Amino acid sequence: MSKSAARSMASMFQMMSQMIETEKDHLSELDGAIGDGDHGITMSIGFLAINAELSKLDLDRASLSDVMSTAASGFLNAVGASTGPLYATGFRRAAKALAGHDALDLSACTDVIEAISAGIRERGKGQRGDKTMLDVWLPAADAAAHARAENKPVDAYWHDVVTAADNGAAATRSMIATKGRAARVRERSLGHIDPGAASAALLIRVMAEALRPDRRDGA
């Protein structure tokens, strides 16, 4: 039986939460090297809150925009640290981008990735090379746009997006932080993967899994 697009997106957020729970300790360990050591906990709290709010929605009547807007509010209300406003802004931008979509095709997926990236960049006033989650989201957005423009099939599209995200996260190891809490340690951040980039790559990997047509169309 085909699931509604809203239910598919809600399932995506459930899968994201499960991934964060699995990797929570590792993310906090990464953060302990260059930050406050709580990134995994922060992300866990945020995504648990998202799913608590989504459980109140009538997903058979909700739009894709409704789901993303609810996610933004849930995350922001639960996470007061800088990560909260960054992802909330990204999710709100994605909610606006989804206003014209009623299906999770590659056009919608591209709009979501680009909107989240733009929202995070706008709120954080950052760029690639700052050693942040933008070193994942921005190349993933570029990869999505290019794959879409080249009319690549679903598997190739998501392969390009996930590869760009993974490479972006790995690249932060050779960067010196200039934004966020890690900027306080400057040169000592060199040699460490940014925890925000690591979690962003995990989220994009989950998107690729959750939004595949064969996954969406399952029970």
From TrEMBL:
A GO molecular function assigned to this protein is: glycerone kinase activity
Q: Which Gene3D superfamilies match?
A: 1.25.40.340
Alphabetically list the UniProt keywords.
Kinase, Transferase
**SMART domains referenced in this protein's UniProt entry, alphabetically:** Dak2
Q: Where is the DhaL domain?
A: 7-209
Query: Gene Ontology cellular component?
Result: cytosol
Q: What is this protein called?
A: Dihydroxyacetone kinase
| Lineage, broadest ranks | Bacteria, Pseudomonadati, Pseudomonadota, Alphaproteobacteria, Hyphomicrobiales
